[in-house]
Amino acid sequence: MIMAETTLTVTHPVGLHARPAAVFYRAARQFQSRITIQNLSRPGTGEVQVSPIILMQIAVQQGHEICLRAEGEDAAAALAALTQLVENNFGEDV
Amino acid sequence: MARQYQGVGGAPGIVIGRVFRYAFSAAAEQSAEAEKEDAAAALERFATAQQTAADYLRTLEQQLRSEGRATEAAILDTQALFVEDIAISDEVTRRVQDEHEPLEQALAATISQLHLSFENIDDSYLRERAADIDAAGHALFAALRGTITHFDNLTPDAIIVADDLTPAETATLRAGAVAGFATAHGGPTSHTAILARSLGIPAAVGLGDAVLELAHGTEVILDGSQALLIAGPDAAERAQWQQRIAEQQAAQQRQQALRIQPGQTADGQPVALWANIGSPGQSHLDEIRVALDNGAEGIGLFRTEFLFLNRDAPPDEEEQYQVYRSTLEAMGGRTVVIRTLDIGGDKPLPYLKLPSEANPFLGIRGLRLCMRHPDLFQAQLRALLRAAVHGDLWIMLPMIATPADLAWGREQLRAAAHSLTAEGIEHRPDPPLGIMIETPAAAVTVDLLARDAAFLSVGSNDLTQYTLAADRGSAELAADYAHDATGVLRLIHQAASAAAQAGISIGVCGDLGGVPAVAPLLVGMGISKLSMAPALLPAVKERLLAFTLEEARQAAQAALKG
User: Fold this and answer.
1) Sign of the CA dihedral B507, B511, B513, B518?
2) Do B197 and B191 meet the contact criterion of CB atoms below 8 Å apart?
């Protein structure tokens, strides 16, 4: 079992909800690994699984720092793909 | 014994139909068998319901997308993701498996728990998503019951009875597919009422919670003009109302005959009868078709907010240009008054960080918001100036309280024209620039504002709420603080007199202009243009023909005495 972890800053103006959340969720679902996220900028929210509703609950706004963890055979690939999505603003020009 | 429910507003028309319950609370019904089923069977039933609900929502999404309604389609796509979300299924599973709760109870508890978690987030956009959670819950319950409650299964005699309807829900409705709406909450200017009027569907809103106790299938009579719902009529009552429906149809036929005739008084004084369009969830071209069918001589208010709502980024100049241009072309040379973005803290836009305000209607809204986001405003003005070469476009600024507000808007329009000229882009540099009269301050300073405005239009909904200090969304206040209160009429009269002195035209584009009993009074005060929901045009036109200008003036004088 492989475990990987990374910390990122979300720069998309909408943060991680609405369309970006749906894009992020759909990407995460492509992998076998169990993927979790924590909003480090919002004390009081813990490490949670990735789903559209849960992503909205942890209310990641522009400038927030998130920690992504993946656990499974394709953990490294999953994190690489998700990191790229966040860094490319979910494929949108913003 | 028939029961009567009195609402506070709606959309005109009388229909007899059957209650179609559309509400989340219907969820509580749980069969005795369901209480005995084991956890595995319950969870299997739930998984099937998730699949059914998601399939249904995706079908609806595809349908909307194929109609070019991408914004509404995106809302339904998110809903489809929600009904399958692990945030819902994990908690339902835990409750059913570990707490031995019956499935329906577990689901209701899960939804209300999630709803609360959103209500407590310190982000107004996310707080509003609590309604999306409820909508997902609703879709799941509908699938569990395996019965109707999808708008898909509406019968033409269905009268939808609901708490209130969201724009996403109303987006799926079409005239002809449903007989009417009746809601417990919402005021005369709520989404449901505005949308029902633009669709030409009879509606009554603000009927109170008691209406939610009506059973699915109950026979009801809905009179939208009186905001009245009557449940369980006896034979005599039914006959009486059928008679009224016949009279209504006769009136419609009479009005239809007047369709091509322009608006005027009995002695031939012209009154421009224009339509309001730009309802959320509606295609503007559909609305224009309905407006022209009802004899609209122009568009007196094109609300542009719908272009900016329910999306992650503002519409760019090109997208707006296409919408404005298609509107002007569809109107074939008739006047189109387009109002610049009129939005505030009550309708948060995810891409604008709006501070949350205690009183959004007294805060940074309309032009004030544009002052803080000049790029957004410039893109809209440039799109308008470019579109203006394709017809008779007038630009209208909302929320004007001082001459300085207007001067700022004027300066922005000049800047937009300069930038287009500098870039060599085709445009009309000087379309008429007018203002809304919706603050009492504007109504009493028309003499000053008229120096720099080409036309005036009274926004009676906001003018009423600002004059009477009564929230326009409050169903409880609506009955006692009416749009035709003497205080409001006197302000309109004062504004109209000053406009006449300054030699500029003044119209009314709020709900007041579409009330047949009030229209002659407004004309008698000097209002020369009435703009309203398209469905109201024929009745107003007929009413105006019953008054000479002198009679209208006398009626106005009497009304102003109070």
Assistant:
1) negative
2) no
Residue of chain A with shortest Cα separation from B116? A57
Provide, as residue numbers in chain A, all residues whose Cβ is less than 8 Å from the Cβ of B81. Answer: 22, 25, 52
- Cβ separation B129–A56 shorter than 8 A: yes
Token match 């800047």: residue?
A: B415
E strands within B400-537?
433-437, 455-458, 505-508, 529-532
Instruction: Report which listed range, A54-68, B17-31, B348-362, B419-433, is most confident.
Output: B419-433
Task: Note whether B118 contacts A57, CB cutoff 8 Å.
Answer: yes
User: β-strand A65-71 against A3-9: which pairing, if any?
Assistant: antiparallel
ipTM, two decimals: 0.89
Is A19's CB within 8 Å of B129's CB?
no
Q: Please state whether B333 falls in left (phi above 0), alpha (psi between -120 and 50) or beta.
A: left
Lowest mean pLDDT among A27-31, A50-54, B228-232, B358-362: B358-362
Kindly list the residues from chain B whose CB atom is less than 8 angstroms away from the CB atom of residue A36. none
Show residues of chain A in contact with B121, CB under 8 Å.
57, 59
**B31, pLDDT greater than 70:** no
pLDDT in tens, B235-281: 999 999 999 999 988 988 888 888 888 999 999 999 999 999 987 66
- Percentage of chain B beyond pLDDT 90 is 60
Q: Contact A19/B312, CB-based, under 8 Å?
A: yes
Chain A environment of B129 (Cβ under 8 Å):
17, 56
Q: Which amino acid is at B352?
A: L
**Residue B145 to residue B142: CA distance in whole angstroms:** 5
* pLDDT over 50 (residue B196): yes
Distance, CA of A56 to CA of B278 (rounded, Å): 30
Please give the angle made by the CA atoms of B314, B332 and B196, to the nearest 5 degrees.
60
Distance from CA of B131 to the nearest CA of A (A): 12
Q: What's the CA gap between B459 and A89, in Å, rounded?
A: 41
Pick from B74, B78, B123: CB nearest A52: B78
Closest approach of chain A CAs to the CA of B250, in angstroms?
49
* Cα B49 to Cα B106: distance, rounded to the nearest angstrom: 14
The span from the CA of A47 to the CA of A38, in Å, is 4
Distance of residue A52 Cα from the nearest chain B Cα, in angstroms: 7
SS3 content of chain A, % helix, strand, coil (to 5): 35, 25, 40
3-state secondary structure of B505: strand
Count CB atoms within 10 A of the CB of residue A30.
Answer: 11
Cα separation, A50 vs B85, whole angstroms: 10
Q: Using CB atoms, which residue from A14, A22, A57 is nearest to B350?
A: A14
